[in-house]
Amino acid sequence: MKSLPAAVALLLATAPLYAAPFDKGDPKIGKMLVDKSCVSCHASMVGGDGSKIYTRADHKVKNAQQLAARVAACNANTGANWFPQDEMHVDAYLNQQYYKFK
């Protein structure tokens, strides 16, 4: 697990190099991916349905680039094996449902 902080740091450092393409993702597909791959892990972390991870006061994601980086890091570290397009769908869903970044 030592590689997780390093991977997140690398992704966060390079995040400004690209914009989160929320308009290229499909939130409906993103919701299906989140429900399949994210909910159970998040529930084990914060309890309940896991959505508190997005709405808690100390959430780590503060902008669109951090959201994209966090989704990419979770994909890499959990073995979800999503393609980049899948990550864009998840970004679009999470942004629409929780974050509301422009």
Automatic annotation (TrEMBL):
InterPro entries: Cyt_c-like_dom, Cyt_c-like_dom_sf. The keyword rRNA processing does not apply. One of its GO terms (molecular function) is metal ion binding. Residues 25-98 form the Cytochrome c domain. Residues 1-19 form the signal peptide. The keyword Ribosomal protein does not apply. Keywords: Heme, Iron, Metal-binding, Signal. This is Cytochrome c domain-containing protein. It comes from Sulfuriferula plumbiphila. The lineage of its organism: Bacteria, Pseudomonadati, Pseudomonadota, Betaproteobacteria, Nitrosomonadales.
